[in-house]
Amino acid sequence: MDYTIKSSQIQLTVTDEGGSMRSLIWLPTGEERLWQGGPAWGSRDVVIFPIIGHAQPYTVNGVTYAPKSHGVVRYSKLKVVDIGESFIQFSLEESEETLKTYPFAFLFMLRYELRENSLKVTYFVQSKAGKMPFYVGGHPGLNAPGGEAVIEFSGGNSAVEYPLGQDCSRSMEIHRLVANKELFKECKTLQLGGLTGDITASTADGFNYTFYSNCPVWAFWSNENEGDYVCIEPWWGINDFPAAPRELSLKPLMNFDDGAGQAFSYMLTITKD
């Protein structure tokens, strides 16, 4: 089922099937700002938990599990626990189905809040029994004519690139990036850590998307051949790669919760020239 919330400048529609965003409308002009799916990428947004990417089988206490891409939330139906004109909150707990690929009892909560021209997305993760390893993050696809966005980094002096599929990293300084089909043909997905401050993506139709989060990794992706969108993804974790440890708790940039619960969030502000 879809649910719609709005502020003075943004209207957001989300679904309880996976908790993802379905529509993000800029109300001053009525323009849709979220990619609406198609052959280039069938999704519009993905809620990521507890694994990132098309992960290989992993082990927990000697038992092997084969995860689906980006984890269990995107394949689950979430429960609405609170809703108002400008906010909505979902919850998900372990089930017979989630335990097949992620053998932990958990509480996962997802909250969307709108204020004027900004959207705040918050993920809350809590273990119900013992120490629980997990990744979490977002995967919004933003409308971008030609599949291109000019991205500016306010805090890119000490950036780190994690090449996709490789067990390595390289330091770099980055302040501006043209995210287009040529870039994604070269790197498939660009993974950057060490970024501070805001990230602003500008598109040819005059929109500016400014992201802020304290997440350790930002990912940038689009289909390398087609599709008028660019994904800007805040990750608390990293895409799996062949050389990564198979034991889930030993994977790099892993988060852990022992029952106290932890919140992770990002902010997206939209403006138009």
Unreliable parts: none
Q: Report the order of strands and helices.
A: EEEEEEEEEEEEEEEEEEHEEEEEEE
C-alpha geometry: globular
What is the chains' assembly state? single chain
Structure summary, number of beta strands: 25
Major β-sheet, in short? 9 strands, antiparallel
Please list the strands of the largest sheet in the order they lie side by side. Answer: 8-9-10-11-25-21-20-15-18
- How does the helix and strand content classify structurally? mainly beta
User: Overall mean pLDDT score?
Assistant: 97
Number of helices: 1
> Helical residue percent?
under 10%
Our Rg estimate from Cα atoms comes to 18 Å
Strand content is over 45%
Describe the structure.
It is built from 1 helix and 25 strands. β16 and β17 form a beta hairpin.
Task: Produce the secondary structure layout.
Blueprint (H helix, E strand, L loop, with lengths): L1 E5 L3 E6 L5 E6 L4 E2 L14 E2 L9 E3 L2 E3 L13 E5 L3 E7 L12 E10 L2 E10 L4 E3 L1 E3 L2 E3 L5 E7 L3 E3 L8 E3 L3 E4 L1 H7 L1 E5 L2 E7 L4 E7 L3 E5 L7 E8 L18 E3 L4 E11 L1
